[in-house]
Structure formats: C-alpha cells, structure tokens
Amino acid sequence: MRRLFLLVLLLFGLNYLWNSYGKELGVGAIADDLKINIDSLLDNKELSELLNDLYIGIAGSIGILEEKVEELAEGQASSKKEIPSPNLESPTNQVFSIYNIELGESKTDIENMLGAPKRSEMNEYGTEWHTYHEDYQNFVKVMYNDNQQVIGLYTNQDLISSTNGIKLNSPKQTVRDTLGQPLSRLQKGLVFYQLEEDSDYDLYELDDTFVTIFYDVHEENTVTAIQILTEDVENKKKSIYSEPSESLKEGFELQMFDLVNATRVNHGLQVVTWDEHVMQTARKHSSDMAVNNYFDHTNLRGESPFDRMEEDGITYTLAGENLAYGQFSSIFAHEGLMNSLGHRKNIIKSGFEYLGVGVAFNEENQPYYTQNYYAN
User: Fold this and answer.
1) Of 147, 156, 97, 105, which is closest to residue 127 (Cα–Cα)?
2) How far apart are CA 105 and CA 209, in angstroms?
C-alpha cells in the first residue's frame, strides 16, 4: 500500500512537471502514457512487481525532467550577457536626462558613446526613433532633428537621472509632490484634449520640454518609464493621432517588438524572436478590427487567435495574443498593456519564443495593435 501511495504521489508530481515544463522542453506527454486504474491495482496483488517497476521508471523520469528543467534554467541564465550599467550623472541643462543624454546634444556625440543604432523607424511625430541597446540592456530611444540634435528621448530601464532625485522606481506620489500636478489637457491645433485625471502616466511641461512619466500599477505605482520631448516637437503635431502610412505602421510594429524585449530583459527573461509569418496573422486581425469597427480576440467569424494561427499554418505548443487600441503610439500602448494583468503576463511569460506585431489604422487614424506570441 505504501508503494501504491508513492506511485500515486509520483504520478501527480510527474503530471505537474509536464504541465509546468514539459511542453517548453519538447518532452513527450509522459503522464498521458501512464494511465492506471487505481481500483484494480488495489484488488490485484499480482501487480506488485509491476508497481515496483513503474515506481522506479517514474522516479527516473522525474529525475530526467528535473535535470532538463535545471539545464534550461542554467542555459537561460548563462546566455544573458551581463552589460555594465552606466554611471549616471545629474543633468546640467534640463530637469531630466536619460543615459546621461540631454535634449540638444549632437547625434555624433551620442553615437561616439553608444555606437550605431540597432534600429531606426518612423514615429508619430513624422521623424524617427533611433534605438540603442546591448542585447536589449541599456535600452534607449533617441529622436533627432534635421540638424542632428537630440529632440526626444525614451527609456524603460534604470537610465533616468534628474536634478530632483526622481528616477526609475520612484513612487508616483513622490513625483507629484516634487513636480506638482500634471497637465490635465493637451492642445493640438484648435482642439484641447482632456487627459485622464488618474491615468497610469503623468504629463508635465518643464523648461520648454514635455515630460511623460509612466507608472507601473503592479509595482506600487512607481516610475517604470519616461519620455522627454522638446516643446517644438510636440507642438508641431497638430492632432492627437498621426496620419497613417506604411512606414508608420511598420515603425509602430517594430517599436512595440523592441519595447517587449526591453521589458522581458528587465524581468530576467530571454528575448523573443521576430516572426514574419505570425506578424502577417497579427496584421490581418488588426486590419479586420479597424475596417469592421470592433475590438475583440474573437473575430466576426467566431475565430479565436489560435484558430487564426492554425489557419495560417503556424504550429505551436504555447501561444497567446494581446490587443490594444486607440493609444497615441506604441510606447503608450505598451505601457498600457503592462498595466493590464492578463496582457502583462503574456509580455513577460518565460515560455514564449516568437512574436509578431501587426498594426492597422481606422478611419479616425486610431491604431489597432495585435501581438501574437508562440513557442514550438
């Protein structure tokens, strides 16, 4: 009876290991092959020897799985190259700096310090974000004007310094106590756009700059990212939404992909790989929502994200989807998704290997975002 109890216990343990790790490791469904009728075992004394063999076999299988899990964890840890953090200094010309970079500095100086950008893509201001990082560590986005001077900055990592002590992980209340009440509205042309009073970001106008401070509601409302723009850049944008174009669509898609990976690195996870195939799946769903004016994981034909992926010939052992709609940019969309628990779980899920992002715009120029994640 003791052996039977141990066998049942081992079966539960094996099933747990399979559900937790088996699919990620590509291990066969061992638990499915060990279906045992407990009632018959209790009545059949002749199965004692079989129980003993099964006990040994299951224990060995668990040992192999535990070994594989440990190898996977060690592999993930060792594959992440440790990049030293910069020695941050207090800014001299503005309230905030990122990676010791301030608005007005030259592109030549930036690239002498950081090297060439990993990516440059169109943004909602009609110019480009240039993205610098080292394996998504020390992640910063920089915008330049025609004179190759810095006119915009963004980071979601520990690269923020200020003249007043505000930095990454500062509490929201500390920010407001220090900087005062944020803006309640933003003027675009002749229109004033009302900003949410208690949103997950604050917008400030400080010394000829617009500073957006994002908060993580799941980390006690602390600073999780910051965007800094010159007043000229923000004021030249005459509408809250930008005129759609193919380059802006692609820019939003790649920006969101990079933001996801920078966030995954923040949480000690492996980065995901861009997948062109599933990107097309995501694009089609965003376009369908934009054209037909709905917002749902299930489309108007009753198809789920998993149905759509399978129809497009994508095989997976693990898959997920995030949707966003109506945000001003990929930065705002990403920060909003991180403050929604279900979406956040997908962004920082350890098992995902691939990501495709698809963007489409409706008739009001509002962007629809679809993120499709999967693992083989």
Assistant:
1) 147
2) 14
